[in-house]
Write a structure and sequence with these properties.
The protein has a two-stranded antiparallel ribbon. α3 packs across α5, α3 (about 60-75) packs across α7 and α7 (about 115-130) crosses α9 (about 150-160). The chain is globular. By secondary structure, the protein is mainly alpha-helical. The chain has 10 helices and 2 strands. The protein has helices spanning about 5-15, 35-50, 60-75, 80-85, 85-95, 100-110, 115-130, 135-145, 150-160, 165-170, and strands at about 20-25, 30.
């Protein structure tokens, strides 16, 4: 789950399957009691119908937590102190694992590096800001903590195949929803 719409969808599924829960966060469900086998099967089937999966092993759960924190960092939805940390230090502080462990685990499951996932998330945020058209490219580069407009443009072209100005012309058709990144 990577957006508020995802959280609402999961909450609806929990209510329809009569599974009492405390709260639903990005990538996590906090339930009142453990599932019965029937509840677990119903939940799993309902989640799969909307494109989600029930992750109940530690490794997959940790990868989902990595994604959640990478998205927050890429979108600058972190505290000022956390914003000053580089990605590896930030993830280490949030998840209490060595970055090398997190990196190899993520790469093994996802088939790409944490850094590539982070770049893709930043570019998606840049696309969003370009489509809104309320900020200049240098303001977007500053907001996303790129060292320069040229650096943002270079990464943007590498990821999308388009320059930021050409992307702005073709617009929303090239955007991906966060759960598809």
């Amino acid at each position: 789950m990577v957006c508020n719409r995802c959280v609402l969808t999961v909450e609806n599924i929990l209510e329809k399957t009569n599974i009492p829960y405390q709260k639903v966060l990005f990538g996590e469900i906090h339930v009142m009691d453990s599932f019965t086998p029937l509840q677990k099967q119903q939940l799993q089937e309902s989640l799969e119908k909307v494109g989600f999966e029930l992750i109940d092993n530690h490794t997959s759960g940790l990868v989902e937590k990595i994604k959640k924190h990478v998205i927050a960092k890429a979108r600058n939805d972190v505290s000022e102190q956390e914003g000053r940390l580089n990605l590896s230090a930030y993830l280490t502080s949030k998840l209490n694992y060595e970055y090398t462990h997190l990196s190899s685990l993520f790469s093994g499951i996802e088939g790409r590096t944490i850094e590539n996932y982070f770049i893709e998330q930043r570019i998606e945020k840049a696309k969003e800001l370009l489509i809104y058209g309320q900020k200049t490219l240098s303001e977007i580069a500053y907001e996303l903590e790129y060292s320069s407009t040229a650096h943002l443009s270079s990464q943007f072209k590498k990821v999308t195949g388009l320059t930021p100005s050409h992307f702005k012309e073709v617009g929303a058709a090239k955007r991906k929803s966060l759960d598809k990144v």
